[in-house]
User: What shape does this take?
Amino acid sequence: MPFYSALLLLIAAPQAAAEPAAQAEHVAIQAADIDRSATFYHEAFGLRIIPTPLQNRRWLDLGNGLALHILDGRTAPKPSNRNEHLALHVDDLATVTAWLDRHHLVWTDLAGKPRTMQLRFDGVRQIYAQDPDGYWLEIGDSRGVAKP
Assistant: This one.
């Protein structure tokens, strides 16, 4: 077969779509009070509550087909390790920090400096906070430069 004929066959052949081996569906955390935790994520970040028939669970929509599942049963505090965190992207970080301030909740930069936004290497403003059970959250937006 001449080279150009073989090349045309390769170009015209349907290309197999590169599918990922797996796709994330949900992240599960355990809470001491599932209603308190669900309220926190709903009010602070606007996550939509997903109805579930399970009484000992609360589900919230993280977008793009991903959910946060809050399971009951936590009896001990979550070990404080900032490296284990859930990263959330919000439309306006100032709205979130104002909500955290109204509820007297601490938010910091990565180094732990209170009430300090930082600018990530790619221009995203971000903060760190903890949920009611001590899970660390990295919260960012892309509205521009962090205010001093």
Summary: The longest strand covers residues 57-63. The beta strands are 26-31, 48-50, 57-63, 66-72, 85-89, 107-108, 118-119, 125-130, 136-141. The CA atoms of residues 10 and 57 lie 51 Å apart.
